[in-house]
Amino acid sequence: MSSRHAPGAGGPAPRGPLVARSGVAPETSRLYLGGRGCGTMGPPSRETWAQRLGAFRASPSAFMAGPEGEDLGRDLLIELRSEKLSEQTKVSLLALSLEYPAQLWPDAAAAEAAATSLLDTLVLLPPRPSALRRPLLLAATTVLAAGDALGPTSGASRRLLPLLLGLASGRDLGRGFGPASEQRPLQATACECLRELESCKPGLLGDCLGLLRRLLGQEGPVQPLSLLLALALRNALVIRAKAKAGLQGLLVAGDAPTPGGPWNWALAEEGGAHPQPQAPSWPAAEDEECGLAVLEPSPEEARELRAAVAQLLDSSYLLTPVAQAQLLWLLGWALRGLRGQPPVLFKPQLVRLLGTAQLALLHAVLALKAAFGEALFTAQDEALLLRRLTLAAQHPALPLPAHLFYLHCLLSFPENCPLGPAGEEAAPLLLGPRLGRSLLPSLLHDPMALLARLHLLCLLCAEDEEEEKGQGWSPQRYLGELLAGLRQRADLDGGPRALAALCFQASYLVVRCLATQPLVLTPLTHGLAELYRARPALAPHFVDLLDRVGPELGEPLRAVLRQEVVSRAGRDEALRWHLKILAKVADGNAPSATLGFLRAAAAHCTDWGLQQALLRVCRTLMRAGVREGLADLLQALARQLDDPDGRDHARLYYILLAHLAGPKLGVALGPSLAAPALTSSLVAENQGFAAVLMVQEAPAPIRLSVGPRRAAGPGPVLQLQVEVLEPVFSLELRFRVQGQLYAPLDAVHVPCLRPGRPCSPLLLPLQPRLPAPTQLSVRALYATPAGLTCHAHLPPVPVNFEDLFLPFPQAPDDGDKQGFFEELWDSCLPKGAESRLWCPLGPQGLEALVSRHLEPFVVVAQPPTSYHVAIRLPPDSRLLLRLEAAQAGGVPVALRTDHWAVLPLAGDYLRGLSATG
Amino acid sequence: MAQRAVWLISHEPGTPLCGTVRFSRRYPTVEKRARVFNGTSYVPIPEDGPFLKALLFELRLLDDNKDFVESRDSCSHINKTSVYGLVIGGGELWPVVAFLKNNMIYACVPLVEQTLSPHPPLISISGISQSFELLFGIQDFLFLGQKNDTELNTKLNQLPDLFLQACPFGTLLDANLQNSLDSINFASVPHPQKQPAWRVGTYKGKPQVSISITEKVKSMQYDKQDIADTWQVVGAVTCKCDLEGNMPNVTISLSLPTNGSPLQDILVHPCVTSLDSAILTSSSIDTMDDSAFSGPYKFPFTPPLESFNLCYYTSQVPVPPILGFYQMKEEEIQVKITVNLKLHESVKNNFEFCEAHIPFYNRGPITHVECKVSFGQLEVFREKSLLVWIIGQKFPKSMEISLSGTVTFGAKSQEKQPFDEICIGGTAYLKLHFRILDYTLTGCYADQHSVQVFASGKPKISTHRKLISSDYYIWNSKAPAPVTYGSLLL
Predict the structure, then answer these.
(1) Is B335 strand, coil or helix?
(2) CA A270 → CA A266, A296, B123, B340, distances in Å?
(3) Does A321 sit within 8 Å of B270, measured CB to CB?
């Protein structure tokens, strides 16, 4: 936690409180003025402050990062007490703290200290009229609420809340709070502050509902009290419902916190300290309905609630239109789903509201419609609402943004009986063709209005599909004419980009809504082709459109555009646009015409950009699988193009085409992720498909494990088990022995592996140069199903000492085994080594141990007590064991070897045997 | 219902940034709620600089919008409302409510009390309409009655204080900012109880009520067999009631003469306390029955202190006041034009002024004009490629006047000559501008004797009427013209 912004929270030893205390809710002042800034440099003047604030507003983050940032918050609080600054300057300082508290006092402690300081400043104001009281109240509220400092443990909160409530209830707070003339505005301000605190901490005023109702009934200012009561009421209902508790006399609880008495935080804490949506969006609010149903108010409580709501609604006419709207949203959603609260309470307001042109009011009526549906709006009411909405959506007296919003409301209208899927824009059933037709687009409309109305027209056309054939002006025909008009405008030479964009947006909208109507799509396709013919510079729009529409328009449009381009001579001024289009639409169809166009165009591709565009078309053709003729073209380009980059590129494509099979070529030429480089496209493109053509590093989808030992044959052989997580082709496993202990190993090849399909074990012959264990590092090279070649490092494979064990082939079958063993035994010395050790035995005993681990190497056996074992260790060593006179816990082993370095390995091995079971 | 931030940006094409933030206000307590409600979809309010850039780009107000930019020009980037998503710092700031008016961009971001992905429908977000009200309110405050830049700057400088009053915490208290300004000034006046929040202070002085009815007539005339001409009257009734008392009650009745055209599509000011259902249902789109309600139209209300629009209406009069045709034929570098205008006999032939403007778009400059008018005089504005036929105060006795002649154009140079996206090829129009005082086309009037005032003292009642033209077009009948669906249904 930074302490620099909290003057009282740290720093140098405080010099003592500078602030005298007086007035309301005494509380230890935590503001100490010390440190830099005030004494040494003198207070900044009005001009300095103006500059400083200007610099801050230009970029708060840059200012706070600069040298002055650190002190701004503290200086501001100090300056508010300065007698040299005018009130107007101080108001502008307070304005800053209203907007940027998080920057000025970034943590809760700093915010708490700042709020305390603001409250101190407030109580220190002389009793004459002052423009600072309101902004100080607003600032203290903002700083506390935005700085996460609001709460029962915060001293500033404990001072601010009773002060605000006192002001809001019009209590006489003494001369310290300014002249009587200021009381009324301060009362309204205090209500607003409380409303904001209640918004940030729902339930905060749960205790004051009765008081607020009384104040509203008496002389209080209607609007602030109404809004405050409505919000507190709504929050209390939601919190109580969530806690599955009743209302418990909440509405009549009359006694607000006594002055100086403790604030009741109970309901706020019940609310979980999270802000509640005041007007939840409709789908999200569905859950809450069930929530409120659990409240089950008693008949008396229900009556009280109804009385409170009626009181608010009756005086709602006195509120400004925006405040009326807020009240209706709050109350509508507060009562939705609450038993015993008939929505009919709202009915007297509706006619008055429906008559107005006020956007917020009509919107609030729509919210009531969504909240209560049929319970408040009969089918006739619904029809009337729709008519008013249709009227408002085109009324010449209303501004365009309002028209657009009403059009949106029409297409998202909360119907009593919706037919279509929820959440999708649709024309409401009761809108009917007559109302709908009054909202059809014309070329004279603003682009946004045109698109909105066009959407409606499309919806009408979609409904009308079967009707009205053969009539003079069906909606479909009108739509066609409109699109033609838009194309004509897009065709204007030198016209703004917006006109072209509008034409394509309209086309896209039509295709999205009417994809199944050939009557619409066929003329659209041909119209677009004509537009391209007239203005090829719109190629980027065509490419964008083709990227986004489905095959209904995409396929025919591709075909006509391809036809349009290839039927031209290759030396058009618009060649670069033609090439751009071809790169999008060229495919395996009629490649000879395309190639013919490209051949002709090549001669005119004189600059780098055009050559690249040409090559991009070649690339598209390669991907589409065109081979015949393309190789010749590429070869010709590799010789003919002026630019070396272009020639290299063509040559590369030629090589790719000549050497890669179809699927691999497709992958190699897939969309390149590399950003285009300015210097050489080849370099840029290389980053894309060089990666494809070259081996790529990848996490291995392969798991290798060592299988059972095979003690046979001339040399040790490792049996490897391979499993794969995805299909792998042409797997090559390369092994490398760490150190020079073994001769280099050959790679192992597997043609194909698939997950879940076992593969026969891979045999890896080892050629040790010393009889020692080691690790093999393993790399895998393989092809993926997508045709990529990948390279992966696998975890190393251990080669254990026992993996090298081989039996003596020359041991006689039935002859003198003992003699053979003794001969080997004797031959080890003197150049070898001898040792004795204790081999612990597990519960299974010697016999089991030998049969599990040493069976192939036993020369002489006298089960269960004595075994003579002879092991050949490549390249040319031997290890002989005598396991005799086994006891319960273990067996003494005598061992000899002709290679002294084997002894410790053998010892470890034997000691480890019982552990491996 | 609250706003996270508000901006006012002047659009300055040709300057490096193409605009300047003239005013901005952020609401940290609302921002804190936004962070909780929006969750992972939360995008913080940016600083002014990045916001300006992103907004101007989205609104196509930057100077370099020549090239195709996918994020703006893509066919799937469809905006049907004045609500935008701005890409800022990798996230999308949504919903940004914004519009351009009088070279000023009004923008704000309302709080959405849920996750933003996917975007909830705008209709379900309470803050959206509050945003519009706030922005319209600022617009009205800045531009109603504003005369010059100095006055605009003064008003811009008043905004911070006004916002402390009208929107201290981001929740709008009153969209009528002038009201807030007055309430600062009236702060010392003790308020009686039960006074409307929209009626700040009281009036002291001679009681008087002033009612003015302004009708605008618009028309689209084609002079074609298969396309119907259209015309419509749009009326606005403006009142200023200087009456003493806290809540004076006034009832104004609008009347029609016996042959008057019924008022339709009536929208009233929120201070109107009750409405006859016949007023509510009289609609130009879909008349419920044949017997249209023809008044009197009664509006009971408690007036605000300032001048206000009591109601708006539309009406369908039987004939357009001036019927005409315009024929234009292109002949190489010159065009041949013929215009004929006829004033309907029922219309008061006493204009404050009457002019026909004949513009030529997408052509070179006018080099030569040879025209004959049967009445009035013709002025040529070469640099604007515009002919203005000044008809004057009265039509001649025949009520019919004409113009004919040829206009020759020079070579086309794109930058200088007027561009129009509608008038392509032969598509062209003439536009009528006229004003008649003390007259309404519908015949609608407010009878002084029918005005009821329940307040102390007998007020002086004054009434005014005027008719003005607005969007009164006569299209060249020799070429295609833009039509609405309505004019096709013969």
Answers:
(1) strand
(2) 6, 19, 31, 78
(3) yes
Q: Which of A322, A350, A358, A504 would best serve as a mutation to test chain B binding (most B beta carbons within 10 A)?
A: A322
CATH class as words, domain B208-319+441-474: mainly beta
- Residue A72 C-alpha, separation from nearest chain B C-alpha, in angstroms: 18
CATH of domain B322-438: 2.60.40.1170
Contact at CB, A396 and B232, closer than 8 angstroms:
yes
Q: Checking DSSP bridges between strand B208-221 and strand B460-475, what pairing results, if any?
A: parallel
Alpha helices (runs of H) in B315-438, residue ranges in sequence order? none
Residues written for chain A: 917
Sort out which chain B residues have CB atoms less than 8 A from A187's CB and list them: none
Contact state of B26 with A317 under an 8 Å Cβ cutoff: no
The two domains B2-183 and B208-319+441-474 share their CATH topology (first three levels equal): no
What does the buried/exposed string (b/e) look like for A213-246 if buried means 16 or more CB atoms within 10 Å of the residue's CB? Answer: bbbbeeebbbbbbbbbbbbbbbbbbbbbbbeeee
Name the residue among A60, A196, A322 with its Cβ closest to that of B29. Answer: A196
Nearest residue in chain A measured CA to CA from B82: A401
Q: What is the pLDDT of residues A42-90, one digit of tens each?
A: 456 778 888 888 899 999 999 999 888 888 999 999 999 888 888 888 9
CA–CA separation, A114 and A157 (whole Å): 12
3-state secondary structure of B33: helix
Instruction: Tell me whether A526 touches chain B (CB under 8 Å).
Output: no
ipTM: 0.95
Element (H or E) spanning B85, and its range? strand B83-88
Instruction: Write down the domain spans for chain B.
Output: 2-183, 208-319+441-474, 322-438
| Chain A residue nearest residue B265, CA to CA | A391
Provide CATH code, domain B2-183: 3.30.450.60
Chain B positions touching A362 (Cβ under 8 A) are 129
Question: Cβ contacts (< 8 Å) between A196 and chain B: which residues?
Answer: 29, 169, 171
How do residues A442-500 score in pLDDT, each as one tens digit? 998 999 999 999 999 998 888 766 555 555 568 888 899 999 999 998 988 777 889 99
pTM to 2 decimal places: 0.81
Q: Which of A320, A398, A446, A547 to substitute to test the interface with B, most B CBs within 10 Å? A: A320
CB-based contact B92:B42 (threshold 8 Å):
no
Which positions ≥6 away from A84 have C-beta within 8 Å?
A43, A45
